[in-house]
Each structure stands twice: as structure tokens, then as C-alpha cells.
Amino acid sequence: AALQESGVDCTFLHFRCIIIVYVLRDVLDCVGYTNVSIIAADGDWSIAAAMLENPCLNDAVEVIGVHYPGTQTVKEALLTEKKLWSSEDYSTFNDDIGAGCWACILNQNYVNGRMTSTISWNLIASYYDNLPFGRDGLMTAEEPWSGHYVVESPIWMTAHTTQFTQPGWFYLQTVGNLTHGGSYVALTDSKGNLTIIIETMTHNHSQCIRPPLPHFDVSPQNATFQLIGYFAHLTDLQVWYSKLDFETKKDTLFQRSSPVNVYNGSFTLKLDVDEVYTITTVKTGQRGSYPEPPKSRRFPKNYSDDFTVDNPPFSEAPYFADQTGVFEYFRNSTDNGPHAFTLRQVVPERPVTWVRDADQTISIIGDYNLNVSCDVLIETPITGGVFVAARVDQGGGSVREAKGVFYWIYANGTYKVTNDIGGQRVLAEGLSGTREGVWYTLTLSVKGYLATGMLNGYPLWKNAVVLEPKNGWAALGTLSFEYAQFDHFEVNAE
């Protein structure tokens, strides 16, 4: 819909998708990866109709994958007789309502949509909280400087399924909705094991971020299950239980209960609202344990990094979060002095993007009103430029609208101070004498409504008035997708 609103020919894009699948299948087969399957098309269900019309496309696709299906499928997808996956789902704040969302869709994606896989975006919310989709993971670990993490309630909703099934198990067809609301699914390994997962999440306590759920009612009930065939001979089953208690705020999360007795293949459960049960033959379930996490604390008020890491275990520097472009450790072979090790922006041309990213590259860090200092090296003659920034207020898919205090120098010998990453709102500008291939030290100080900038320790501009934003991240970046280097980065909080 967004593409159509922007005037993009979606029929052409759909045709391109089909061609890409063809080519990808041929390439994989030619290099010997015949056992690698293609999941398509990670959007809506529209590829299903194309697969019914095109046998070659149908043969190339192993799994139809969709994003945020709202537990529903379409008849064309069922007619393909392909595996159906919710290849991206959840994306919801990980409080108890998020846990209710996750418990609900883990069951109902199969009950309503016959989807046999549901993949959470994302697994661990490990990025700055104020970025888009903050805490939209099954657990939270967003303070690498403190080591603090939180095992959120969605983790335990996951365990109700994943601890009692394995890849290769399959859903039984006798699944569905409970009489007074809620759902149940049953899976087996065809070796005598059985796992039943029951959820009774109420509408207001299971709202996913997208799409909105239609209204439904859930009330307390007794539910009787009749086992048939091989399972009719079972005499008892293991029970694991969770209760999201929105009244007392005292949840019960993934606790082992007394086994349920089975009489003549039948057992009855007394179900309340906002509960999850796992009834299973599998006896290996365990809640597990983890050490007490380190205490939460804010980003250090004073932080510096000279990027001197000879053999880094990762290409990214700690605590920086690239929003556009890629910033990596770099061994500067042309400088054996103070800038032998640097951080470098390494993407020289604009990539194909998922959202409308900024035309500039930017990596953010910290969470205070900060004074920022950094050595910078422009590598692109004439048109090149770099910046340091403070109080940056947007990232992710909104980075193009980011405001803050951006202090730019350019290879053409000028500087500019802007209130936005796009450079439209100019606070100060003039001559700087800067050029490519020379290291400069930029220092940006922001206090209250006033900002001041220095170049190599000397004032270049001062008292630029900054009315908003009042806080945000520090950042560094480039004017375009160009090579540039950064060194001796330092932030100091007020």
C-alpha cells in the first residue's frame, strides 16, 4: 500500500520478485545447493496466486512466508499445498500484553492460518530504547555497558511450545478454538510423544502491534479433551502452566504443575482467562535458571574510544549503533602514528533500502545532553563532508527526519551547523579551511539553548541557538555514502 501511494508500479515489483526467485533457484542448483529451499516472498499472500498460475514458480518455492498475517491465510495459499510460515511476526512491546500477543499467535497462526512456523521479530531487544520498536523483543538486553538484561514474560510463552516440541514434529489436524474463547493445538513426533498447548488470552491482554485483532470474548470454562488412537492408552500427562495476572500483577510464568490423570483417554481442565497450559508426554521440560543480572545504569557520563583494536572480535565498535551506512574498525596502513587504528564509514554508495533511509550516513551513541569531540578525516575531494552531532532525536526508519545539532566540515573549505540531518535548517555557516586527507579535531558543546563548535581546539563558531530537541544521542557520520575516518572519539555529559 505504501508503495502504491508513492506511485511505484507494484505489478512491476511483483514481476521482478518472480524473476528473482527463478534466477535464485537456478543459481543455487548450479552450484550444488539443491537442498537449500526458497521461502517467498516475505510480504503478503499475493505470491500464492502467482504460484497457482505458474508451475515453474510453484516448483521453485518451498515455503510461502508472510509478515504479520494476523493469524489468517488465504485460500490460494492453501491450494498450493506448500508449507505456510509467518516468517516475521510479533514486533510488540515485551510487557505482559506482548506476552499475551505472542502466546495467542503461536497457537492461532496454525489454528486459523495453518502456518507451521512463527518467527519473532525480534528475539532480543538489544538496541537503544528510544529507537523505533523499542523493547519489541522476547527479552531485553539494551545496556552492554552495564551487562543488565531482563528475561521478559514472552520468553516463557515461547517455552510452552519450544521445550516440548522439536523440528520434525507436526501438527495434528484436531486443533481449534475453545467453546468460550481461546485455542489449542496438538503436535506429535510420530514416535508416541504428544504435546498440547492451550491459551486463553483475552482481547485486551493480547494486542499485537499489527494488525489489530478483531473483537473476541474469552471467559472461564471447563475444557475436556478426548485422546484417540495410540494416545488413548496414556494414563497421565505432564503439565506446565502460566498465568498473566493483570489484576494482582503477580504472574505465574512457566511453572510445573501436578500431572493430569487421563481416564479412558479423557481429561478435563478448569481454565481461567489469560492462561497458557502445556500438556505433554515430554518429561525433559525445565524452567532453567540464570544469574542475577547486573544492575541497570545509564550510559557512562564520560566515555572515549580510540578504536585501537588490532584483531577485533567484531567489526563494529562497542555502543555505536549504525542507522545509515556501516562504520567498522579500520587499520590505517598509511598512518603509523596516532591514527593507525580508526573507525571508518565503508559503504561508498547508497544501497537498496528497506525504508527511506537518510542520504547521509550516521551512527549514534549515548543518551545524555553531551559534549562531543572527535578527530575526523574526509577522504572524498571537493564534495566530501563529515559531522559530529549531539541531541539526535530520531533513528531507524525515521532517521531521515532526525533533528539535533549537526556540526559539519566539508572538503571544499567550509563548515555548517544545522538543526537537522538533511541540512535544511542552518544555524551557522562559514569558512573552515578544511580539505580532504587532513585530520581535524571537531569539538561540539551544547548547553541549554546554546551550541559552540571548535576546530583543532580553536573556536570556529559559537552561541548557535538550539530550541529543540532538548536531548538525544551523540552521533558521527558523513555527508553522503563516502569513505571517511573517525578517531579519538569522546563524549562528556553535563
Automatic annotation (TrEMBL):
GO terms for molecular function: galactosylceramidase activity. InterPro entries: GH (IPR017853), GH59_C (IPR049162), GH59_cat (IPR049161), Glyco_hydro_59 (IPR001286), Glyco_hydro_59_dom (IPR035394). GO terms for cellular component: lysosome; membrane. Signal peptide: none annotated. GO terms for biological process: galactosylceramide catabolic process. Residues 22-163 form the Glycosyl hydrolase family 59 catalytic domain. Gene3D superfamilies: Exo-inulinase, domain 1, Glycosidases. Keywords: Disulfide bond, Glycoprotein, Glycosidase, Hydrolase, Lipid metabolism, Signal. Residues 322-493 form the Glycosyl hydrolase family 59 C-terminal lectin domain. It catalyses: a beta-D-galactosyl-(1<->1')-N-acylsphing-4-enine + H2O = an N-acylsphing-4-enine + D-galactose. SUPFAM superfamilies: (Trans)glycosidases. The keyword S-adenosyl-L-methionine does not apply. Residues 171-286 form the Glycosyl hydrolase family 59 central domain. This is Galactosylceramidase a. It comes from Cyprinus carpio carpio.
